[in-house]
From TrEMBL:
Its cofactor is Zn(2+). This is Glycerol dehydrogenase. The keyword Acyltransferase does not apply. It comes from Cryobacterium melibiosiphilum. PROSITE patterns: ADH_IRON_1, ADH_IRON_2. Pfam families: Fe-ADH. NAD(+) binds at residues 42, 99-103, 130, 132, 136. Keywords: Metal-binding, NAD, Oxidoreductase, Zinc. Residues 13-159 form the Alcohol dehydrogenase iron-type/glycerol dehydrogenase GldA domain. Binds 1 zinc ion per subunit. It catalyses: glycerol + NAD(+) = dihydroxyacetone + NADH + H(+). Glycerol binds at residues 126, 176, 259, 276.
Amino acid sequence: MATPGLIRTIISPGRYVQGQGAISRLGEFLKPLGSRPLIVSDDIVWGLVGHEVQTALQSAGLPLTREKFGGIPTAKEIDRLVQVIAANDSDVVVAVGGGSTMDAVKSAGFLCGIRWVTVPSVASTDAPTSALAVIYTEEGAFEEYRFFPKNPDLVLVDTQLVARAPAAFLAAGVGDALATWLEARATAQAHAATMAGGLPTLAGTALAELSWGVLWDNALPALDAVREHVVTPAVEKVVEANTLLSGIGFESGGLAAAHAIHNGLTAAHQTHGLAHGQKVNIGSVTQLVLEGAPTQEIRDFVEFTTRVGLPNTLTEVGLKVTDEDDLITVATAATAAGETIHNMPFEISVGELVSALKSIERFSRRVRSDARLPEPVAYAHAQRVSSVAL
């Protein structure tokens, strides 16, 4: 529960820029922040946008220095980037890519005491706007959150770049963002603290709820548009919901069970090929079960997220109801001291969480059968979203 006298607060990035072709103006928005930028990107993303970034920096009279990202935001990779920043005397570091790249860059930028910028190549998480990073072990398991005293100085999202990426990335972002309202309302009910360092403000909670509404109205047509690699008003709305609304909403509205369950799932090796938002969606369904939410609310959520292309059964994330030891490991990690599951308005034991995780398999299968939606199958490697790009 909340500490007596805890303040209310909201945090956000210094500037948010979104639109088709926005990457061509990167130099314009970057120049006020520094004169010696270091661009960090993996080879896949750089192959897609390298020329555009180079042209944008040249037009602003900025030099181009690019460093390859190692793939996973580990403590070792962050320390390596710190050394690269120091060697180049960079005064601003720019992440071009997915959530993993951005988390590593934010961490390195903070340690070096310079400004940092995020340029997401996909709208698969709300990491671009946040003042925190998720750090993983070399094996890909969740290790810790790192918190920073400020958000990125600039977030620049080119929606045409987002539309060029596979639709699975956008769907993963929807999974991450849908959890925002579920967790924010739980945090508000519990009068618990948020990652912004205080009680949620009305604004933070309202943005979380707005994100939810935008996604229910626009996610399906936006995904259809992205499958054709085109940008429509629905795409613009979903990108903003996935990135800005969810970003401020989770950070200043509060996290609860869904993201803690995600973190627990990373302890099971079977889930390591899955995207952040895919695992978060399992957390959202499970949180609804733990809350004893109305059956119709859970049914609607399962049906909608199935249509989006998100997993809502253990089978789809490589687990089974009979994997007792693995599920206990997941639940133990999710309920560890300091985890956000303790923002729920009631206590949740390891046994209760294991039971809830097991229950979603049969329930979700029934919902999908009633709605004549595809039966759950284990996600093939080709269906998983690469952690390098994320």
